[in-house]
């Protein structure tokens, strides 16, 4: 009944987001009143029974043993240490033990174990785009995500480096809803925070070794302990991880990777109340090309061929990817990250904090554009008039060289007073140099021939070779561009909260951001420089009620912002910049620990209203040029439910379900003009946002027990489900079906030694991950392309800790 009521309420509102304060004032009151009534009903129906059972259990039984109690997880989502159940945010936290047991090795496996988090990727580890609450990014031409990754509080710039290997991670926090007030930096829909392990005050360490199918090999080692007793502590770690991928071979890792990475940390603690934590990370990755298949379409005639797939994209039982050009090896990536966090307590009331960050990222990518062995058909003409056709390999090369620096200063209260406050300022500077050549293999073309595509595009012999590549001079670039982007962001932020005697806490947060972006375009004979400054406010208001130590009710309203940017190909100066994207998110929730802290039930309901959505649309001057423009409004409504239970000694059950009904309200997507059916009408109002699943579900069951007096064991199973995903802003141009993945693991533990056998994708689900289309360089047409999933993978891990 309550779900039906919720759906009916969702259908009644179709209006876009409005201005910052005035038009939202009354709307906020209506939302909170309606949602409060709804939440009361849901909570009453769902929790009354269990609350009664909990009370009965409390009266008739002794307190639960420690092994049956749910874990108290401390998080820092609001820039201070709090237990996760006392934070009025929808937040999921994964501890170090859960990371190991669930086999979380990257951001993709994190998404499979986190409520409301999914990934949108065009392929490989270099295009990773997290999606929270259905707020996918319609235009991904810029390098900014709307769900950023932070490592120890420092922002991870760009998209190419966020899917890094994990080493010495203590905890991962995934916060849903805008965090722009405290975090800034594109925390539009949420944020992902990695917290590394601090150096310990006693000697500790460990090592692990993993082997598996498809040439999987991994090794990790770490050591931590004091350098100066009670004052200076250190941590070092190193790892190697290789996998050829489900479709790889000896010469090319299709979907695979090889990574070498290391990390270190120093911790200084003084009796004066001063503490400093220095962290560093270095990684060198070789990431193979993504497993993609380009195939013939079944609809939309483009350049003489069917260029789209209408319906569910096909699965492939035995795809033939042997024809990938071995010179298109994927991505070589080198990453360095470092941060310094210093705090000084002034008495027992005030803390001063300085957080500094410095990061670099270098990438070089070569991809096989036709995704198939036969190449693409091109025509050529000789000086004597003779013509011919030849199949040529088309490659794309991209390179990026970036660095960023950041500095934040904070002052905050740390007393037990009912009044708490925080104030701070920050700076962020970013520089990204990129180049993007396209190459055609002219080896089979007769000497002196003039290469001309079937569509009439001319590729003259003698064009510039791809720079810094191992390719031969027979490869020539068809197009070549170089640019540099610079960002300088200044922000001031603060928060104030007060807890009344009746355990009601009111909190307000506000950030003012001034962001200057500059674009340098390196043309054939000159350099063009353009800059733009964006200024905006991002507030957050929260009201929560701590009914007792195990029950929290809260409501919040927050504004999220994603940065604006530039269209490098814009024909006029007015069309170069596009503005930030904003949303207002309204949320109510309940957090509860029941049955003597053996059952946890957390529920959050949200309504998101988006304004200025960044969407691809044609230039008003030249309709054949497509640009990112603020061309839409939208909304997303739904809820997130998380359950954790310890019904018996050694048994832990977890589950989550999220529904995000995200749709455009008023929007135009001019990129659809590539398809004949949409050349005169590309209004996508009322359609779902692309590349995101409306329904997400995950669950796990883990049982630990003693096998012998000296041997413990455990078994674990995880299941992950996401519903269908449209590949485009219209459901008529193809989608991928929902997919279900099951993982399993069994392990034995003796003292500090642990061995486990595991399998990922147990039932070998082959449902594609993404429906998309690709540009054909020879005809400038399009063709449907499917991204294939990782298949079943089996392995074993042995680890030792002390």
Question: How is this structure best described in words?
Answer:
The protein is mainly β and 802 residues long. The protein has a single domain (2-801), classed as TonB-dependent receptor, beta-barrel domain (Maltoporin, Chain A, Beta Barrel). It is built from 4 helices and 48 strands. The strands form 10 sheets. The protein has a 22-stranded antiparallel β-barrel. It is globular, with a radius of gyration of 27 Å. The two termini are 53 Å apart. Keywords: Cell outer membrane, Ion transport, Iron, Iron transport, Membrane, TonB box, Transmembrane, Transmembrane beta strand, Transport.
Strand content: over 45%
Which class in CATH terms?
A: Mainly Beta
Task: Write out the CATH superfamily name.
Answer: TonB-dependent receptor, beta-barrel domain
User: Which segments are poorly predicted (pLDDT under 50) over 5 or more consecutive residues?
Assistant: 1-64, 456-479
Main beta-sheet annotation: 22 strands, antiparallel, barrel
Subcellular location: Cell outer membrane
Keywords: Cell outer membrane, Ion transport, Iron, Iron transport, Membrane, TonB box, Transmembrane, Transmembrane beta strand, Transport
Family: Belongs to the TonB-dependent receptor family.
Domain TonB-dependent receptor plug: 84-190
SSE inventory with pairings:
Layout (H helix, E strand, L loop, with lengths): L1 H10 L10 H39 L13 E2 L6 E2 L6 E6 H6 L5 H5 L5 E5 L6 E5 L16 E3 L2 E2 L13 E8 L13 E7 L7 E9 L3 E13 L3 E12 L13 E13 L4 E14 L4 E3 L4 E4 L2 E4 L21 E17 L3 E19 L7 E6 L5 E6 L1 E20 L5 E17 L2 E4 L8 E4 L4 E2 L15 E5 L2 E18 L4 E19 L4 E22 L2 E12 L2 E2 L10 E2 L2 E14 L4 E13 L2 E5 L7 E5 L1 E17 L2 E17 L27 E12 L5 E11 L2 E2 L8 E2 L2 E12 L2 E8 L9 E6 L6 E6 L5 E9 L1
Parallel strand pairs: 6-9
Antiparallel strand pairs: 1-2, 3-8, 4-5, 6-7, 8-9, 10-11, 10-48, 11-12, 12-13, 13-14, 14-18, 15-47, 16-17, 18-19, 19-22, 20-21, 20-25, 22-23, 22-24, 23-28, 24-27, 25-26, 28-29, 29-30, 30-31, 31-34, 32-33, 34-35, 35-38, 36-37, 38-39, 39-40, 40-41, 41-44, 42-43, 44-45, 45-48, 46-47
Protein name: TonB-dependent receptor
Family: Belongs to the TonB-dependent receptor family.
Membrane topology: Multi-pass membrane protein
